[in-house]
């Protein structure tokens, strides 16, 4: 690799930047070069541990999980003030500044942004992520997700994507990249070669993108080609196999030889570097995932991930051991000095492109206070919530609601965890929404299972007499390490199943997964919100009351390709 290639897109380095890269590179020992390859994660401000990362190991960067702003700032300050080479500081900035600090703005999920049907909001999302993250010391966004949500059974893509239309994913992703990088943060388009085809999660297995090379070129390939042309600085590689393309590029491969992209030279070099022309930095997804670790022994995959084309190694199972594996790989020829040098040059090139060598990288609480949850950011979050809430289907005459028409409401809440509002109980959405309903004069009874056969005891006549409306609030969030986001009805006999839809007007609201019609196909009034921010529930109520229109446009097929879900 010629260092002068860093003058080209996406780094666009000038002479003085190249000089810094060259001088810094020449000053590094082999041990320090290896240290630069490692990208760690921080959950809390532990000065002793953080200084070990910088002073003893010399890591290349650290990802912050969402913490209070003071803890993020303290973490970054400790790191940047004790490092020889400025660090990359990242976070999963997929939905707003809330991705790095609990004091940040949650704008909305990618799917909510896509449901506005306006790329302006994807640009604003990128801009807000950059401004807020930069205020607490970050310089690198592990976003946007540019996976395509083809498979509604996939438990991890879902609301993290911009939908199932490659054109919309491409346009929304490019707008995010522009908004983020114009405001000083590098982006990482992920998860190459593309999630969303399989119904399995790469955290748990090596998942498979089973598209043919021709299909891939027209879909995921088109997305990556466009975002690379738009200047995305880095690509994050998933532990996802692309077997048909791997075999096209290397016809000698057998099924048992197929590797996840994070280890597959033919995909990293032949497809991403050569065919798509990517000249930026390549980072693995978390190397703690089973999707990578089941592919080969860890003492081999650590050095081979770099040798086969990745530049940064994200997270470790055991830091000392993984460093030892990398060093031993260099000694034994699993990692060449040429690839080590190329990776380090690109790491330094990314840092120079962000001007980290020219600026004070120590954040301040005062600066953060001026930017976090700034009124304009909150306004954009409100607009996203307003314009994304989608009325998927409607039973004639049920809406709008009023307390005169539906005085008594039976509410079923279905939740699996504390939610985006920060409630500690799994019933957080209901806890927030019931008072809003009551403030409008509704009498709300919350279904409380007792473990007996309620569904067999209550007669239909009694239910019709007792309740004017049944409302379902379903908050089943997509997350890693689960195999499905389907509804699990309560025992015994599914006592909370929608049994009364032909007798009592029933509305089903999903505040997360947009595909629940699969499990409640005969529900006649169904609404998706694609996640919840601070404005979603009040705006949802306004729409239910007819005070505001439903404006969202489904970025996926909420009917799941089934005929009965449309009834």
Can you describe this structure?
With 567 residues, this protein is α/β, with parallel strands linked by helices. It has two domains: 12-371, Glycoside hydrolase, family 3, N-terminal domain (TIM Barrel); 389-566, Rossmann fold (3-Layer(aba) Sandwich). The protein contains 21 helices and 16 strands. The strands form three sheets. Strands 9-7-5-4-3-2-1-10 form an eight-stranded parallel beta sheet. Strands 11-16-15-14-12-13 form a six-stranded mixed beta sheet, covered by helices on one side. Strands 6-8 form a two-stranded parallel sheet. Strand 2, helix 4 (69-81) and strand 3 (88-91) form a beta-alpha-beta unit. 54% of the residues are buried.
What is the CATH-assigned architecture of the largest domain?
Alpha-Beta Barrel
CATH first level of the largest domain: which class? Alpha Beta
Mean pLDDT equals: 95
Distance between the termini: 59 Å
Unreliable segments (pLDDT under 50, ≥5 consecutive)?
Answer: 418-426
Give the total of beta strands.
Answer: 16
- Kindly state the percentage of residues in helix: 25-40%
Shape: globular
CATH homologous superfamily title of the largest domain: Glycoside hydrolase, family 3, N-terminal domain
Structural class: alpha/beta
Rg, Cα atoms, Å: 25 Å
Query: With helices defined by DSSP (H or I, 4 residues minimum), what is the helix count?
Result: 21
- As for the number of domains, it is 2
Strand order of the biggest β-sheet:
9-7-5-4-3-2-1-10
Give the amount of beta strand, in percent: 5-15%
What is the fold-level CATH name, i.e. the topology of the largest domain? TIM Barrel
Reported for the largest beta sheet, the result is: 8 strands, parallel
């Amino acid at each position: 690799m010629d260092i002068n290639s860093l003058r080209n897109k996406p780094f666009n380095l000038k002479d003085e930047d190249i000089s810094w890269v060259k001088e810094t590179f020449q000053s590094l020992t082999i041990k320090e070069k290896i240290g630069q390859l490692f990208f760690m994660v921080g959950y809390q401000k532990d000065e002793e541990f953080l200084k070990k990362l910088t002073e003893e190991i010399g890591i290349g960067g650290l990802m912050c999980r969402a913490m209070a702003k003071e803890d993020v700032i303290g973490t970054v300050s400790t790191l940047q003030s004790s490092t020889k080479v400025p660090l990359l500081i990242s976070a999963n900035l997929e939905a707003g500044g809330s991705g790095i600090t609990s004091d940040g703005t949650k704008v909305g999920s990618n799917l909510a942004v896509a449901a506005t049907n306006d790329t302006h909001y994807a640009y604003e999302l990128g801009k807000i992520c950059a401004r807020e993250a930069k205020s607490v010391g970050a310089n690198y966004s592990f976003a946007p997700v540019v996976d395509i949500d083809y498979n509604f059974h996939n438990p991890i893509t879902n609301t993290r994507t911009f939908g199932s239309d490659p054109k919309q994913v491409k346009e929304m992703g490019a707008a995010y990249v522009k908004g983020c990088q114009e405001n000083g943060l590098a982006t990482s388009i992920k998860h190459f070669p593309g999630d969303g085809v399989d119904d399995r999660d790469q955290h748990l297995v090596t998942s498979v993108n089973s598209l043919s090379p021709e299909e891939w070129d027209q879909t995921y390939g088109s997305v990556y080609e466009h975002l690379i042309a738009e200047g995305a600085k880095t690509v994050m590689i998933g532990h996802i196999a692309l077997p048909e393309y791997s075999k096209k590029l290397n016809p000698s491969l057998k099924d048992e030889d197929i590797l996840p992209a994070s280890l597959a030279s033919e995909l990293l070099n032949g497809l991403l570097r050569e065919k798509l022309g990517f000249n930026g930095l390549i980072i693995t997804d978390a190397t703690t995932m089973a999707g990578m670790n089941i592919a080969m022994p860890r003492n081999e995959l650590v050095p081979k991930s770099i040798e086969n084309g990745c530049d940064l190694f994200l997270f470790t199972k055991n830091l000392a051991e993984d460093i030892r594996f990398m060093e031993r790989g260099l000694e034994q020829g699993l990692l060449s000095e040429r690839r080590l040098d190329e990776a380090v040059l690109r790491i330094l090139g990314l840092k120079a492109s962000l001007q980290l060598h020219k600026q004070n990288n120590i954040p301040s609480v005062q600066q953060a206070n001026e930017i976090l949850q700034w009124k304009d950011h909150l306004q954009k979050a409100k607009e996203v919530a307003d314009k994304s809430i989608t009325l998927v289907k409607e039973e004639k005459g049920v809406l709008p609601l009023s307390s005169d028409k539906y005085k008594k409401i039976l509410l079923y809440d279905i939740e699996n965890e504390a939610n985006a509002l920060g409630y500690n109980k799994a019933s957080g959405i209901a806890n927030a929404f019931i008072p809003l309903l009551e403030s409008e004069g509704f009498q709300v009874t919350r279904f409380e299972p007792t473990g007996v056969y309620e569904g067999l005891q209550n007669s239909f006549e009694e239910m019709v007499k007792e309740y004017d409306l049944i409302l379902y609030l379903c908050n089943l969030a997509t997350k890693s390490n689960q195999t499905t986001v389907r509804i699990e009805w309560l025992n015994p006999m599914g006592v909370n199943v929608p049994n009364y839809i032909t007798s009592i007007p029933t509305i089903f609201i999903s505040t997360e997964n947009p595909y629940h019609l699969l499990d409640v196909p005969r529900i006649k009034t169904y609404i998706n919100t694609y996640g919840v921010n601070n404005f979603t529930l009040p705006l949802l109520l306004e729409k239910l009351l007819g005070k505001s229109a439903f404006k969202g446009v489904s970025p996926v097929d909420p009917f799941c390709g089934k005929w009965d879900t449309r009834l």
